[in-house]
Amino acid sequence: MRDDVDSESDLLEPEDTLVDRGVEDVLDEGYSPPEKPSDFYDGHESLEGRLAREVPNPEDADGDGVGDASDTDGEPYDDEVGETRAGRLVAADEGFGADTDEYLYARDVGIDGAAASAEEAAVHAITDDQE
């Protein structure tokens, strides 16, 4: 028997496997036990048996079309924010240097091609006549 194998956990060290998960010690990785004990599984279950245990999702009532939310008033536009989404906001100095201005100034450089973060998606443009 090899001495470098942990006999309690029977886990091989990373250098002894082809799997590299980025941890030096395999015990640092953790272990996720099965959700049900193995005694619960008594062999294979037929497809008919599994489908018989399925509970169908409740039918959603039709929404109002704005956000298709059935249990709310939808997501109407608030009078305090504009309907036009702003893009990425960049400081006047492109983000370089110390911020010495008393106020925050930025300009809209357009929507990024990737997915916007929640913070970016929450920013909307308003015109001066809406103020």
TrEMBL record:
<feature type="region of interest" description="Disordered">
    <location>
        <begin position="1"/>
        <end position="88"/>
    </location>
</feature>
<feature type="compositionally biased region" description="Acidic residues">
    <location>
        <begin position="57"/>
        <end position="81"/>
    </location>
</feature>
<dbReference type="Pfam" id="PF18970">
    <property type="entry name" value="DUF5709"/>
</dbReference>
<feature type="compositionally biased region" description="Acidic residues">
    <location>
        <begin position="1"/>
        <end position="17"/>
    </location>
</feature>
<protein>
    <recommendedName>
        <fullName>DUF5709 domain-containing protein</fullName>
    </recommendedName>
</protein>
<feature type="domain" description="DUF5709">
    <location>
        <begin position="80"/>
        <end position="128"/>
    </location>
</feature>
<dbReference type="InterPro" id="IPR043763">
    <property type="entry name" value="DUF5709"/>
</dbReference>
<feature type="compositionally biased region" description="Basic and acidic residues">
    <location>
        <begin position="36"/>
        <end position="53"/>
    </location>
</feature>
